[in-house]
Amino acid sequence: MRRVLIALLWCGAAAAETPGEALFLRGAGAEAIIGGGAVRLPASRFACAGCHGADGEGRAEGGTAFPAIHWSALTARAAPYDAAAVLRVLREGVAPDGRVLGSAMPRYEAPPGVMESLVAHLRGLKAAGEAIGSDRIRVLASGDAALDAGFAAAAARFNDRGGAYGRRLELVEGGPGIALAGLAEAVAPRLTEACTDALLTAMRQAGVTDFAQIGGRPADVAYRARAVGLTLTDRAEDILAMAAPERGAAGRHYYGCLDVLGPVAGALVAEGSRLTIALPDRAAFDWARAGGHDRQAMRGYTLGGLLGQAARDAGRRTTGAKLTEAARALPVAIEVISLP
Ligand code: HEC
Prior knowledge:
Blueprint: E1 3-8, H1 19-26, E2 31-34, E3 39-42, H2 48-52, E4 59-61, E5 64-66, H3 71-74, H4 83-92, E6 107-109, H5 114-131, E7 136-140, H6 145-160, E8 168-172, E9 178-179, H7 180-205, E10 210-214, H8 218-227, E11 231-235, H9 236-241, E12 253-257, H10 262-270, E13 274-279, H11 282-291, H12 295-314, H13 320-329, E14 335-339
Parallel strand pairs: 1-10, 1-12, 7-8, 7-9, 10-11, 12-13
Antiparallel strand pairs: 2-3, 2-6, 4-5, 13-14
Helix pairs in contact: 1-5, 6-12, 7-13, 11-12, 12-13
The protein binds heme C (HEC).
Residues 23, 46, 48, 50-52, 64, 66-67, 69, 77, 86, 89-90, 95, 101-102, 104-106, 108, 118 line the site of heme C.
Domain Cytochrome c: 15-207
Keywords: Heme, Iron, Metal-binding
InterPro entries: Cyt_c-like_dom, Cyt_c-like_dom_sf
């Protein structure tokens, strides 16, 4: 039986949504009190974002003005909000200047902690808003040198090609910005899934029946593979750790995801094996291969490409929150390539 190795090195958990973000975006976890206190309903029908926008920038619609409620706006009022004032306006409808808000703005009740988390989310909207300037999109370095270097390389390519709407991608060390680490976390599960799909399809088409795996989350992959009639036989890390002669040198076919790169890929190709690799970004792969960069750097490069694409798609008027969301939701086109 032919043995095939699948490498899934792009693993990571979805960025957990905070209770405040869930309330803001979907009205989860709270009750809305409307009609002057007469009616209590699940707040799911009254998500803040539904009226004030996902970016908290506000808007006017049908004769009603929905004010901007991101932190920069709230703290710039003549009678500025602080955290306690936001809690009060949400529970009682009374603004810091003593004004009682109209009935178009619901009142909210939530279990302890949820409102505080909502305030934290509003504070975050400020940072995201300021991440986007007229001529730049600020991205906060992750502190992981390889991830940052990969992102910077993709950003340079994006900027050389004119950026988007006159904006360049800029990697910064501090201040407001789209957090690269958060973006990486948010996008990882999607890439893993798209990649696994592409690989399983490729293996099926190649008539492969069993395979071993490198990295990743074995249970997930094994489960998904079983569903399409493939069997995970063992952990390929062990096999790769063996000396080439022991694991039977030439003629093997390895299946991998994204980043079977550098010394491993080179060695495998050199000993006469064939690699089939699923990639979300060919440019990232070519860049990493040419410069001998590792998979984390390739990941950073891929993220730079995705964020650049999101910036082009988003149009002139956008915010950090919207861009992050767009990058997270972009369809990932997986390319399956073979080496040599
Ligand atoms: C059904 C639409 C709607 C929903 C849902 C809604 N708001 Fe409002 N909100 C309004 C309107 C309209 C006003 C302006 C009311 C006024 O000035 O009388 C307002 C005002 C506010 C203000 C006061 C701003 C200021 O300038 O003083 C804050 C803060 C606020 N909303 C936060 C929230 C938050 C947080 C949520 C979600 C938990 C939310 N709103 C959900 C419609 C809505």
